[in-house]
């Protein structure tokens, strides 16, 4: 089999950063058994650690998320190595581009239509609504007039967000008609949707769906704060939910969603609301591994590396996933960068001695400069992964870190 991997993630060797340590292509795909080629950008090249002698071809481009560049790179590899059997992209931002390249070049694998159900936020809600799953009321932002009319019928506040975004990038909460009228002219409306604001706690479910659309593993977590607030400077974390009637209902809800969407041979990251009346309402789903500290926490608690499972399945191997017989908890917390950037770090106090449940802690050094950009896995004011027998203690410890963490920085 000739496998082409598209990689945009670096790996770090400084002993501090654990980002992307679970995406070990050279370990999870047999480079001797298969011909393995890579398309990378500058950072992605730092994440390819396979021995050069085992790599069939490596092509570097400026942007792996540019359709023309990725297509040209795959063609170049094909000319050098031969026909491609698998074009693998793990980043959410690359899934759709890779699907378009597959379709254009006649390669096997998920098509744009198949990817749309977990990349296009309008399409996914259309499919689920037709299947009887409760979703927020929504409408594509076809033009400003229709968007304003939908918001008026729905009632404020409303949420306006990109149909193909991630990490709450470009998401806006709009509280009144005047604010919406001011926002809409600044957006490429063809890429946006407007939807009902749903009141409730936000949960996420992370797991893996096999080739028969059966969930083979899933873990339910509840967010501490929310992703939208993180973009405005609030901490973000989540806590693994232990056995309960609510968890059973959420797991069943997740099964209905992935089945209705026809997802297969993929990890998933599902987000949903639990309203004050205990109703479950779909928020969105991604056909990829959850971000931030999610994969590291699941790997530690349940011995499940979702990247490994995904890569081995795509390479045609039989996958093994353990039964979740134990019921531990854990959580994670990201304290975002200062709002005024760039900024030089003056103080970042370790929290391990105060909070023994901390398993991993990533703090910037005094003198480090925090730059704009990056998602949850960037170098922030502080990042923490916690482990404990009870979810109540994990949540209490997360709040303890938020309340007691000392951080100072000066704007440059």
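^ Assign residues to that structure.
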């Amino acid at each position: 089999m000739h496998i082409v991997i598209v990689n945009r993630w670096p790996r770090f060797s400084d002993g501090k950063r654990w980002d992307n340590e679970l995406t070990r292509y050279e370990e999870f795909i047999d480079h001797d058994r298969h011909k393995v080629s890579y398309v990378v950008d500058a950072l992605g090249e730092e994440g390819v650690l396979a021995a050069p002698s085992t790599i069939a071809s490596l092509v570097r481009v400026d942007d792996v998320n540019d359709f023309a560049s990725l297509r040209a790179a795959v063609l170049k590899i094909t000319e050098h190595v031969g026909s491609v059997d698998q074009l693998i992209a793990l980043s959410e931002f690359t899934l759709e581009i890779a699907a378009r390249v597959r379709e254009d070049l006649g390669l096997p694998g998920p098509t744009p239509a198949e990817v749309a159900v977990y990349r296009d936020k309008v399409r996914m809600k259309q499919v689920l609504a037709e299947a009887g799953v409760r979703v927020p009321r929504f409408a594509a932002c076809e033009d400003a007039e229709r968007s304003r009319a939908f918001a008026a019928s729905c009632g404020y506040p409303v949420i306006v967000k990109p149909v193909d975004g991630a990490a709450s990038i470009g998401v806006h909460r709009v509280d009144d008609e005047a604010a919406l009228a001011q926002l809409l002219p600044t957006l490429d409306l063809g890429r946006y949707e407007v939807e009902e604001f749903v009141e409730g706690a936000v949960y996420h479910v992370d797991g893996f769906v096999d080739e028969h659309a059966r969930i083979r593993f899933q873990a339910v977590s509840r967010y501490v704060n929310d992703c939208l607030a993180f973009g405005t400077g609030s901490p973000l974390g989540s806590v693994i939910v232990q056995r309960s009637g609510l968890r059973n209902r959420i797991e069943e809800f997740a099964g209905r969603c992935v089945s209705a969407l026809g997802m297969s041979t993929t990890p998933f990251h599902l987000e949903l609301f639990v309203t004050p009346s205990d109703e479950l309402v779909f928020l969105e789903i991604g056909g990829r591994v959850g971000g931030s500290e999610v994969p590291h926490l699941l790997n530690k608690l349940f011995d499940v590396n979702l990247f490994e499972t995904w890569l081995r399945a795509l390479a045609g191997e039989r996958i093994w996933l353990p039964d979740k017989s134990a019921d531990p908890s854990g959580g994670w917390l990201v304290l975002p960068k200062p709002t005024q950037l760039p900024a030089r770090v003056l103080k970042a106090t370790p929290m391990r001695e105060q909070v023994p449940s901390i398993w991993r802690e990533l703090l910037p050094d005094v003198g480090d400069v925090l730059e704009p950009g990056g998602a949850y896995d960037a170098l922030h004011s502080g990042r923490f992964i916690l482990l404990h027998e009870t979810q109540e203690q994990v949540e209490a410890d997360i709040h303890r870190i938020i309340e007691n963490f000392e951080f100072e920085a000066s704007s440059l």
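The first strand starts at residue 2 and ends at 7.
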